[in-house]
Amino acid sequence: MDNTVTEKSLLPTNGDDLFKHIVGVSPIYQSLADQQYVELSQEITNEINKDWAFFPQLRFATSQLFAGCILISGSTALLVNCVESYGRLKTVDSHHERRTTSGAHQSSFPKAVSKYGQITVCLTQDDSTTKLKIGAASCNLLVTSSTRLDKQTIANKTIETGANTSNFVPVPDTKIYMNAESLKLGRILLEDETATCIDQSYILYQLRQLRSKFYCMSTYSLCRSFSSIVSDITYRPYTIWTLCEYDSPQKIDSQSHKLSKVFQSIALLVLKNGSAAQIEVMIFQDLYSTLKDGTIKDTVEQIIKLQDNGSIEIINNMKLSNLLQILADFMTASINNSNQMASKLLSQNLYKK
Description:
About 30% of the residues lie in helices and about 20% in strands. It contains 10 helices and 11 strands. Strands 1, 2, 3, 4, 5, 6, 7, 8 and 9 form a 9-stranded antiparallel β-sheet that branches. A two-stranded antiparallel ribbon has the order 10-11. Helix 4 runs antiparallel to helix 5, helix 7 packs antiparallel against helix 8 and helix 8 (about 295-305) runs antiparallel to helix 9 (about 320-330). It starts with 14 loop residues before the first helix and ends with a helix.
């Protein structure tokens, strides 16, 4: 008989004991010590699986409920720093998960009922990206920032910021532990039929990491939520809406930063004026004069030509949306670089304790 004692054999086998052990020995335990967690219940799963068309507050409540949750797969654990919700129906979310034949095998829809009810944790491949999702019947949640609790070095990808998650592989019986404070706030949102966002601070950071369908109102849904670990915006993932807030050492704004300011303007106009939102062409004219010759400048010139009496409609304007998508795609590299810095700064903050 082999009496060799491995690290895995020392781990407790009971679910709650395993959770306490992993958190207790985590290199970032001090950042979690004042937090309380409770395992996901069927009651919560049933609540988030209600129809978004009848319960529109679910887009906000669901993200808040799962912000800061901890996923346990075998002896590995992942803290979810940022999560954003997507409805399953086209009529409630223009960025719903596709149900085409080619993408069916990548669906996050629960294939079986777990002990938590109709919910699952899975990986999908999309746009050459490995995405970690929490899939329910009426929606799915995309993890866009996470921290491994049982690893320590940046080389081991302890922290990942952005849509790609490659440092965690969920098993069919992955356990989900909810952050008690997020659960409390999420329950409040579940009862608030008038909710239009998750909270009143850093509104634009609640917009999802999207780069298309700018003609749809649902693109501007404020349903991205964060854990207390990333309450400081320095550590949050960047998007086309917030890249201009990145504290770059450069004295002159890059083209991507300039474009981000325009996307902020668009979002603010839609959030304030809804389907009647229009953007003044002067904003694009001022941008045009600062750009280098090339595709981006040519695209902005085409946008300027869409004006009608000095303004451009935003919602239901497919021509504008298609041109904005070109600008958004151009920003991808800058967003990725900024997210890498956010991960680095978060790592320095967590491991100095």
